[in-house]
Amino acid sequence: MTWQAGRLAFLLTVSLCVTSYGEKVHKHTEKDSSRGVEEQFIDVRDASGTYVHHGPYTAFYIATKSKAAAGHYRYGVKHGKWESWYASGRIKQTCTYINGMASGVQTDYYENGKVQNRTGYEQGLPHGEFTQFYDDGRLREHGTYVNGLPEGEWTIWYQNGKKQEEGAYRAGQRQGIWVTWFETGQKRDETTYRDGLKEGTFTSWRPEGFRWTQGEYRSGHKEGTWTTWNQIGLIEKEEQYSNDKLVESDNN
């Protein structure tokens, strides 16, 4: 059989069993209607005798015949460079795997070709710099992961370039002062965290810049006097909390 004829048989046959170097190799072409793709892959027996994916993998969109994904398996797990595409043919994601675990930088794209996310990976976990963009290319979010958990300073921006939220993580938990802003750039609220729980003074402001509410948190619960001001800066009400429960309210 010629190479061309063999290739044609592979494309038309649902499952083809051949023997290579004494090892049975099953070449498959399967349709996955739920994802709208046709997959081509190879199965071989692993050490336990179970058939697993091994070698090149390719998927095509059934409707457009364009490539949907491509990569390699090594005895049942992804290994090496993997890519996926939108039905339009534009790149969707690139990632590298080592023995089934994501490694290096994974890049996700919008269909317009702009980068959506860049995420560092190590041994299958987010590790290193994370950056997210809006579909016009403007920066949306930036931070760092360590062993799958957010660590250090983290910032989120509005699409107009002004900050939306900023603070720090320690071992995946919010720590210290976190600040949020309105899209105008006016500060919205300021919260202090300790090991992921709100702790200490909380203050919020109205869009016009006037202070709105202020009170204390203790281990994530409202505690003591909480004050609310009206739009002209006068006290509107004062409330007393104990372990997050309202125990007294004084409306002015």
From TrEMBL:
Read off the Pfam families from this record. Answer: MORN_2
Q: Which domain of life is it from?
A: Bacteria
Under the heading Gene3D superfamilies, the entry gives: 3.90.930.1, Histone H3 K4-specific methyltransferase SET7/9 N-terminal domain (2.20.110.10)
**PANTHER family referenced in this protein's UniProt entry, alphabetically:** MORN VARIANT REPEAT PROTEIN, TPR REPEAT PROTEIN
Protein's name according to its UniProt entry: Toxin-antitoxin system YwqK family antitoxin
Q: Which organism is it from?
A: candidate division GN15 bacterium
